[in-house]
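Design review, sub-item: ligand-bound model
Attendees: FS, YL, KQ
YL presented the inputs for the zinc ion complex:
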Amino acid sequence: MKLQYRYAVPATWMRDRLDNLLARYTFGALNRCEHLRDAQADVAVLALWSDAAVCARCRLRLKLVGDADSTCDRCGRLSVPTIWPHVAHPSPGVVVLFGLCAGCNGTEVAA
Ligand SMILES: [Zn+2]
Ligand SMILES: [Zn+2]
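KQ shared the predicted structure:
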């Protein structure tokens, strides 16, 4: 599947993860909230750490607690006390949340 990116072209690791996640979303492999299932929502909120796809109203369902909430989505390391939250817009109507540790955050910003 060839995806059209609406904004900046993401780094390779990110593109692979986004492609995978969006493919699963497109083919119905993610657990959609009832609003997305009933096509009552314009925006789907996905997260690199989750198998769920929710509308903006249901976005708190993606929230993690404890160590999982502090795990970097790029390198998988625990990032305490700060994880840097990010949002990607890989295609119209879809946003993807992810968090980076300070090291990965610096790498991405510097790139
Ligand atoms: Zn919803
Ligand atoms: Zn990291």
